[in-house]
Amino acid sequence: MSSWSIRLLALVLAMLPALPALAERCATDDAGETLCLAKPAQRIVTLSPGATELAFAAGAGEQVVAVVAYDDSPAEVAALPSVGSHSRLDLEALLSLEPDLVIGWISGNPAEQLETLESLSIPVFRLEPGDLSGVASAVERLARLAGSEAVGEGRARRFREGVAALAERHAEAEPITVFYQVWDAPLMTLNDTHWISEMIRLCGGVNVFGDLPRLVPRLDEEAVLAAAPDVIITGGMGEEDRAWLDDWRRYPELPAVARGNLFLVPPSLIQRPSLRLLEGAERLCERLEHARAQR
């Protein structure tokens, strides 16, 4: 082989590690649309706290250049500029950042503003995972778009393994009835299609309103009294806000009140679709185990 051929072969071999980064990257979002990027996204804007956490979990944190109001996790987001709130975007500020990927939230962001971004050739990837599997999948898909597959796939795998371990640990647990309170006025809960109900089932719990047709049903207090749940759980209005739980003490005949089974799980761990749902599920299972011991 000539020296020229050797140098050419060496050049080709040296380029091989870079070839995957040059390949087109495609992923299907939660709206069913497939988005393809010519190269990994380098300037990402996330338009909800959940989207932000998922992007960082996917290993794309260093590529996130802006977030929206009320983003609080991970700690690095405090240093990032805001482009408005999830419900009202500052499109001028967003466009000035020249993003090559915007991660939107289907039910949280104004559809017309996301469509405006797309009309300006800004790639938009819409998320809204509905269950624990969807959360892990979102991390993997974002990692593919950001070129951080090794990180994202590893974290998604550990999340799935943690969920499976909890399911196995509580597979034979004695069923216990649960009312999950989403809001107080009007009183609201969740049916069995929501990931919080999936977490309740994971821990051997039974959602007393799981069969209702609406995802977020409205109730009255009489319905809760009639259901007589063994446990009442809420995320409240803050990480340590137990006010809603204390309100139920007006009904000492409720099994959950009589047995002291009024539990708070911080909303950031149970109401926001991120990999931290695993920690939330672990806390939820601990509380249901405590409640079983009160019988």
The structural class is: alpha/beta
Rg, Å, rounded: 23 Å
Number of strands: 14
| Uncertain spans | 15-21
Q: Name the average pLDDT.
A: 92
The tally of helices reads 13
Distance between the termini: 82 Å
Biggest sheet strand line-up: 4-3-7-8
CATH fold assignment of the largest domain: Rossmann fold
- Written as H for each helix and E for each strand, in order along the chain, the element string is HHEEEHEEEHEHEHHEEEHEHEHHEHH
Specify the biggest β-sheet.
4 strands, parallel
Number of domain units: 2
Which architecture of the largest domain would the CATH scheme give at its second level? Answer: 3-Layer(aba) Sandwich
Q: How would you portray this structure in words?
A:
The strands form five sheets. A four-stranded parallel sheet has the order 4-3-7-8, with helices on both faces. With 295 residues, the chain is α/β, with parallel strands linked by helices. Helix 3 links the parallel strand 3 and strand 4. It contains 13 helices and 14 strands. It comes from Halomonas urumqiensis. This is Cobalamin-binding protein.
Strand and helix layout:
Layout: H1 3-15, H2 19-22, E1 25-28, E2 34-37, E3 44-46, H3 49-57, E4 64-66, E5 84-85, E6 88-89, H4 91-96, E7 101-105, H5 111-119, E8 124-127, H6 132-146, H7 149-169, E9 176-181, E10 183-184, E11 187-188, H8 195-202, E12 205-207, H9 221-227, E13 231-234, H10 243-247, H11 255-258, E14 262-264, H12 267-270, H13 277-293
Parallel strand pairs: 3-4, 3-7, 7-8, 9-12, 9-13, 13-14
Antiparallel strand pairs: 1-2, 5-6, 10-11
In short:
This protein is α/β, with parallel strands linked by helices.
